[in-house]
Specification:
Elements lengths: L7 H6 L7 E5 L3 H14 L10 E5 H6 L3 H7 L9 E5 L6 H10 L5 E6 L8 H7 L4 E5 L5 H14 L3 E2 L1 H10 L4 H15 L4 E2 L1 H10 L4 H10 L3 H13 L4 H23 L4 H7 L9 H10 L2 H18 L6 H22 L1
Helix pairs in contact: 7-8, 7-9, 8-10, 11-12, 11-13, 11-17, 12-17, 13-16, 13-17, 16-17
């Protein structure tokens, strides 16, 4: 069975009596871990309980293929539910899981945690989706709407009120990886304090002070044609392990803003008025660079970039691709193109 995104929360609370093996996989490993813990708790097993949980790596299972069946058939001391957790699962383990699903020894639930698998090609995903006793659910980076919901809940739990425009800015700016973005929200909760209200101005101030404006600097240096500054910010992005996918998505978002600006000015608005009407609002330090880039990048070039970036994002998600190299190369191409345009004006 394939668990659809809209059904994930309900499934994790109650997977059903017939399900014996669940594959949780995807690019967002923080979310993979969170969902595995939620499912474990729903089974009535405290996460990490050594008396009711057996944990193996994929290599351990492949080294002794009877290990899974033996662990699944074992009884817990208190006769309660048992769990077998297998980490770093790959397609190599598919024959072992197939044997398990054919025989279903014991009564333990098996949870497989894996990194990103290509659903259309993965034998493990196909096996779990096609078996009545199996299920698979994918964990990908949150969308803006998902992040808004997660952030709102975190602010509520911390007793912090947050303005809508501040929430919009955070959802569209922070890294799509749930683990990274949650750490940033936790910092903002501490920055504001319980019972306080968080405005967009406070968020921008905190982001600038904490170096959270690194993504903006990276994008503005590329689209403005400042190759020297771009090199500096790319080095910082690598040191901070900024996700190449997040960098590309940031660039996509920036080009969409430039496209929105073109649409507004074509509709009769002056550039300054169009800038003020944009939501989330442009950070005041980026207003002049944004106006300059509006002149540098015509609509056709922006649309060409969006097409190229969509292809690049898909390529970065392919297992084994040199993601940082591909990402940096495209940023340099954008900067060189912008510099040539600026020199030709």
């Amino acid at each position: 069975m394939r668990v659809q995104p809209r059904n994930v929360e309900g499934f994790l609370k109650n997977p059903g009596d017939g399900i014996r093996c669940v594959l949780i996989y995807g690019s967002d490993q923080t979310l993979v871990s969170e969902r595995a813990k939620t499912l474990t708790t729903s089974l009535g097993i405290p996460p990490g309980d050594p008396f009711r949980t057996d944990e193996f790596s994929c290599d351990q299972i492949m080294g002794d293929k009877a290990m899974l069946a033996d662990a699944a058939a074992a009884q817990s001391l208190d006769q309660g539910s048992r769990l077998v957790r297998i980490t770093d699962a790959t397609d190599r383990i598919t024959p072992v899981i197939a044997d398990f699903l054919d025989t279903l020894p014991g009564a333990a639930m098996v949870i497989l945690e894996a990194k990103e698998l290509v659903r259309s090609r993965s034998s493990l995903v196909k096996l779990l989706e096609g078996n009545d006793a199996g299920a698979s659910l994918a964990c990908y980076d949150d969308s803006d709407r998902d992040r808004e919901a997660v952030f709102s809940q975190m602010f509520r739990e911390a007793g912090v009120q947050v303005d809508n425009d501040a929430l919009d800015w955070l959802a569209s700016t922070l890294d799509a990886n749930r683990g990274i973005s949650r750490r940033e929200i936790e910092k903002l909760c501490l920055f504001a304090g319980p019972g306080e209200r968080l405005t967009l101005e406070m968020v921008l101030e905190a982001a600038a002070e904490a170096g959270g404006a690194a993504m903006d600097s990276l994008i503005f240096s590329a689209c403005g044609g400042d190759v020297a500054q771009l090199e500096k910010w790319l080095e910082r992005a690598a040191m901070e392990d900024l996700s190449p996918v997040a960098m590309v998505r940031g660039l996509i978002g920036h080009f969409f803003k430039l496209l929105e600006l073109h649409a507004a000015t074509k509709g009769g608005l002056a550039v300054d008025a169009a800038m003020k009407s944009m939501r989330p609002p442009i950070f005041f330090k980026n207003v002049e660079p944004m106006k300059r880039q509006h002149r540098l990048w015509p609509e056709k070039s922006i649309k060409d970039q969006l097409t190229a970036l969509a292809g690049l994002e898909s390529e970065l998600k392919s297992t084994g691709s040199p993601d940082r190299l591909l990402c940096e190369r495209h940023f340099y191409q954008v900067a060189i193109l912008a510099r040539r345009r600026a020199q030709a004006r």
